[in-house]
Amino acid sequence: MAGITFRIPSEGDAMSSESYNYPVAISRLTDGERSREPQNARAVRWLQKQSGGQVVVVTPRREVDSPIVKQLIAHSNVRHVVWRGFSIGMLSGRVLHAWPNREHFQKLWDQDLDALAVIEWNEDEAAEWIDDANPIQLFDDRTVEPAASPGEVVCETLPNGVDGILEYVAGMAAGYSTGLKWNEEDKLKADMMNRPERWVQITVEQVRVKCRVLNMRPDDIDTIAALLQRRKEGRRFNVRSSYRTFSFS
After folding, report:
1. pLDDT value of position 31
2. What is the distance between the alpha carbons of residues 213 and 227, in angstroms, rounded to a whole number?
3. What is the C-alpha separation between 22 and 199, in angstroms, rounded?
4. Helix axis angle, 162-174 to 204-213, nearest 10°
């Protein structure tokens, strides 16, 4: 690898995905590959071809086993970020995100970048992000382009006013850069306890699907799904006094 190439856009540049307004790709382990290094190399090569600013490499730890990722980090124009102490504002330009877990996939939400290349480690942790981001998928023997018209998530109408509740919560969360606020969370907690009959027929998966259709942040989806799961397990919530008797009309 000779170095990092800074380019201007051309007709050969990757198109943005359905959910991101910049090029996005994920390098995936291909059946038969005995080493992760070709997978790592595919992500690096793809990112080098994208136009944009400084390259930022995100890894779980400062120490990196991959020779090609280590070589990239050693370049003078590359900034290296590790998970410890990571914050959203650290990402800009062209980003290589190596081996993210579910939590770090969530942190990719609403980033303003020039390009993003992800190196997948665990298929299960990446699956939902791949569905939502619709990235280019890089395999050893093929490249899978983003679906021109991604399949719509089938979302049934939820009874007992739950549809409207989730739409309200999603609308409120969208108004804040950090997502769901404590008071909206308390409203949900209170309603789940004060109106248990409303939620008894609703499954956690139904709530997850509805929230995804509403384009909620992944961490907010996890929060709401976890609240319902806890109630189904018979657990109670601590709710601030101002919302303790609250229920959605």
Report:
1. 93
2. 19
3. 39
4. 50
